[in-house]
Amino acid sequence: MSPNRILNVAILGCGEVAQVAHIPNLIVASDKFKITALCDISVQSVELCGKRFGIESRFTSVTDMLSSSTLIDLVFVLTADQYHAEHVVQCANAGKHVMIEKPMAQTLAEYDMVEEARVKSGVVIFVGYMRRYAPALERLKEEIKGKEIKYVRVRDIIGNNRYFTSQSGMNQSYFTDFPASATSDLNQRRHDNLIDNLGESRAFADDRNMHSWSLLHSLGSHDLSAMRDVLGMPEKCLMATRSDDGRGESWWWTALFQYKGFKAYYEMAIDEVAVFDAQIEVYTNDSRVKIQYDTPYVKGLPIKLIIQRQLPSGDYSEQIIRPTYVDPYTIELPLIYDAIVNATEYKTTPSDAKNDTILVKMIMDALVD
């Protein structure tokens, strides 16, 4: 490809994250991207995005979109989690590069299927772990490099997400004009995936398992993948606990991971307090280094690095570093472009993403109710 080429992009899934983040960001990045097609099973969603953003080619079928004459180099797959792997493979087999929202897949077999399609088709499949591309994360890794880690705290406790998205300024809309068969098919996929991941005897032994897997695999993937980026994979999960709200849901999670020489404590939940409390804090003998994430849905909120340490003089020091005010969704875009146009290596590959499902299986296997 020419280094100055503009990539033609199709948006597959026109829901919240498309309306709030991906479509507006791609339009602003018009020196590298042009949205040429929209696709969603909701006609109302497609029509809203098409009219609002001036995109003429609109589809309700992935197959129809990929077989059309519309110019498409890259597909942003933003559909329901249970369809991610299938849609990625469809696009890869059609010779299209893919940016896929996390989680990339639902089962280990699906990850292998995606990787096989990537190798066979020779396309880029870029998994959208936007937090891992925050400059503050790289600064954290530099700060702790060579130091003996004593303890780590990983936290993802956020208020109801629509509190933040409603203040994004994008006036998004939500529609439910799905075919009846779509809901039943989605539920069947969730059912079958849970059996694949936990085994038939365990999958439905507890009413909370379905919700537990979904929450850990979606919201949990943000900090679990960032934890892996900073620390690597843990040796094992020593124990995990979840709340019991009496409705078959488990919103509050804790887990303890064993690393060589230290432990990492993980907390994850959704509540109704309007605070986006997502962070990773690494403790060494003489410092505490913390990355603090704010919601990416409200632009201009910086991802901060906070360093607390004891100086050689004996003085206590606290430093707050804001490498950039650019949101991580925007930071991802030139990296996706370079991976496709310049064959630049990238870290959020399908093989890397597979480790999140392995981690979730670790947590479920270590569960103590």
Automatic annotation (TrEMBL):
Q: Which residues form the Gfo/Idh/MocA-like oxidoreductase N-terminal domain?
A: 7-129
> Which InterPro entries does this one have?
Gfo/Idh/MocA-like_OxRdtase_N, NAD(P)-bd_dom_sf
Task: Look up the domain of life of the source.
Answer: Eukaryota
Pfam families xrefs: GFO_IDH_MocA
Q: Which GO terms describe its biological process?
A: NADPH regeneration
List the GO cellular component terms. Answer: cytoplasm
UniProt GO MF annotations: nucleotide binding; oxidoreductase activity
Entries under PANTHER family matching the protein = BINDING ROSSMANN FOLD OXIDOREDUCTASE, PUTATIVE (AFU_ORTHOLOGUE AFUA_4G10190)-RELATED (PTHR42840:SF7), NAD(P)-BINDING ROSSMANN-FOLD SUPERFAMILY PROTEIN-RELATED (PTHR42840)
Q: What is this protein called?
A: Gfo/Idh/MocA-like oxidoreductase N-terminal domain-containing protein
